[in-house]
Amino acid sequence: MKTDLPEEITMLKKNLVALTIAAILVSPLAIAKPGKGGDNNPMKQVLSQLDLSDDQKSEIRELMKSAKAEKKANRETNKAEREDHKEQMRALITADSFDENAAKVLIAERQEKMAEHMLKRVEMHYKIYHLLEPAQQEKFLELMEAQMKSRGEKMRGK
Questions:
Q1: What is the pTM assigned to this prediction?
Q2: DSSP helix/strand/coil, 116
Q3: For 97, which DSSP code?
Q4: What's the confidence (pLDDT) of residue 75?
Q5: Which fold has domain 73-148?
Q6: Residue 153 above 60 pLDDT?
Q7: How many CB atoms lie within 10 A of CB 2?
């Protein structure tokens, strides 16, 4: 059963697709499993291969530290929102009749939260990218593309 989505939800979906593509282009996906004592943080793996100056390391460390602090500060709120979302979904599923509009609103709210999260990630990658020298930027993009390829192959079971 196909229905016309309100313009706002359609626009949200388009924005989410655009953000998803942007995040995929610069997402920190693992190239390979780290060796013994290696770091599982894919972004750190990429950055470790860029021959960063001490100033670049310091600035990137501060960016990551700030992002981590913000994420930690929002952890409880986000957890409560996820639990609330699950309860609302459960109520929709178990209701005597299906409320399509309520489902669309709930989906749109979830998509908006996902888009916000992805936007923050893309912004972080943008800031890091623009701290790099041109040669480092080129290598950064190559490493990220290799990660995407590797991730895609892993997801397809190759």
A1: 0.62
A2: helix
A3: S
A4: 86
A5: Four Helix Bundle (Hemerythrin (Met), subunit A) (1.20.120)
A6: yes
A7: 4
